[in-house]
Amino acid sequence: MTETPASPGLALADAFNMAAALFNAGRHADAAVMAERILAHAPGHPDSLHLLGLVRRFQNRPEEAVALFEEALRHKQTPAFLSNYASVLTMVGRHADAAVVIRAAAEMAGTDAALFFNLGIILRSVGQLREAEDAFRKAGRLDPASAAAHHSRGMILFDLGNHEAAVAALQAAVVADPAYAGALTALGYVLSRLHRHAEAVSHHWHALLLEPARLESAVHAMDVGRYCLMFDRQPALQDGMARAVRMALETGGGDVDWRLLSSVLYRHLYRPLPDAARTMAEQAFGRRLAAAAPENAAPFAVPAMRPARLRVGYLSVHLKNHPIGQVTLSLFAAHDRARFEIHGFTHVAGVPADDAYAARHRAGFDHVHDITGLAGADIAARIRAAGVDVLVYLDGHMDKEGLVAMACRPAPVRVFWLGHAGGLGTVAADYLLADRVVVPFGEEGRYGEAVVRLPVCYHSADRHPINPVRPRHEYGLPEDAVVFCAFNNTEKVDGAVFTHWMEILRRVEGSVLWLSRAGGLDGPRHSMTRFASEAGIDPARIIMASRVADKADHYARHQAADLFLDTWTMNASTTALDALWSGLPMVTLAGNCFSNRIASSMLTAVGLEDMICPTPQAYVALAEALALNPQALAVVRARLWASRETAPLFDMPRFAAKMEAAFDAMWDRWRRGLPAEGFSIPER
Fold first, then answer.
1. What is the distance, to the nearest Å, from the Cα of residue 53 to the centroid of all Cα atoms in its chain?
2. What is the CATH number of domain 478-644?
3. 194 falls in which pLDDT band (50, 70, 90)?
4. CA dist 636 to 471, 513, 563, Å?
5. What global pTM score does this model have?
6. CATH 3.40.50.150 describes domain 310-453
7. Is 478-644 the same fold as 310-453?
8. CA 422 to CA 390: how far, in whole Å?
9. 331-358 burial by CB neighbour count: b if 16+ within 10 A, else e?
10. How many whole angstroms separate alpha carbon 26 and alpha carbon 40?
11. CATH for 1-67?
12. pLDDT tens across 251-302, in order?
């Protein structure tokens, strides 16, 4: 019998078994002490070297674990030794070496499903997706009850573009473990990509029933319900989102990624959360984004006076044929070059060469900085290196790297404008550009940023050419019917506004509703026709318009309609500008927050405040009255047509000058060491 000096009378095998028992019981420090005693007596004992390596891995000391595993393998090679060695190689970034080691372990094991599963994980980490898929397939074949193997294989098949096979693998994971919420979430997501929307929502909902705090499933379910206009499921999906937000942040808040919270806040615009859940999400988002943003270097130097040309940077990945790019098309070129130097931080690589919007934007900047593929901290470094004085962020929650860049404070003054109806919080911006309609006086406290009100309207638009309108039948419209138009993205349509649209069609005999067929998806059209039928409206009275390539043709077809009906929860924005510039009058509902006051702001800017209705009933009544009185509608149309050429809404040089006045005031406050504070720019 061999004895250890530290434990007289205790056999080496017994000592090791004791160390292993301590490790398995979670007493890692005690296990390490016992293993070290064994190694002091028997320096090459492979099992003790391996056990001590496991302890060091759990103690997050991977370099020591690597050395211990390598020493153990010099004396003894087993699949378990090789597998654990591979795992710590990944911890120190030696992924290629890990792949070689774990492959050897799998070959040695032959029928060990766990080793093939680990092989798949490591191969996936080094980007060898097809090989990883094969490893997960073997693991699932060797152990059909391994839901994790089927799940992992399904996600790799999805990444490889084989969506049907991914569904089969994920369904196998759910069969293996019906309570596996992660597999249900993944299955719901893949099914939605295959346009199997009802199934997708059902799987997400099942995942939420299993794990009510599963925020990822709540977000995906809301997305499917929003895009496909599942009005009957809307209340439950909104309740599920609010419950998931509350439970995720109350019970496991530290594990909720800020990107997921950003997605929640973006969707709030379309399907609002209760105030308490929204506030909780906003606060958690701000804390986590701040923690994710690397700290900046030295503070900005404060000049004694304003430079001859203040450097203004615009940050957006959407300066192309996109709603943001369409609104800002001539803004950058309109700035006063004697007093401002304009920088654009945007995607250049990968933007189609024939995108005329992108080309015009780049031509409007003094300097274009390509941020394609850059992480947020790198974008921030590039902005800081350019010496930007005032940085304007346009994308809001639509671009996560942009949020990180803003949180890094890459410029002395940070401004949020345009791309997200509302604020982002002080972690990402100092100022929010608004106007007196979208943020009435007294409501500044609803926003983390200091509110700066531009005169009349918080954004402007170009005066685009309009092609001649074609006969109605060429647009698929009846020649002699009243045509109500709502070219908003269909995701802005909710059950409340659609119900009232059906009431308008019921009151105006023979009228039709002309809607956008967003993205060519059939889900929204099927939902709307079904709900129209249930409301007693012939589905043939709902006509879907496809996207047209030429914006001038898009403006022209507005003139084939009689009246634009706005959505309520999230108003028309770029779409409203299109309608008004085309001379198509719009009816909207007075809102209670930034996102549903956008159209009111625009109507005020063109002198059509009387088209803003105080209640849903008034909205329906006004639409009916104008539709049934062509003379009254013609008067409204004439008023709009006359105001287009003089209204501030379509005067980009004037708007640029007002923005410049705001930039000067913001920067001057910073230069004088004053905190961000709200103010208004006068009209004259």
1. 41
2. 3.40.50.2000
3. very high
4. 22, 20, 10
5. 0.86
6. no
7. yes
8. 20
9. bbbbbeeeebbbbbbbbeeebeeeeebb
10. 23
11. 1.25.40.10
12. 755 578 999 999 999 999 999 999 999 999 999 999 999 999 987 767 899 9
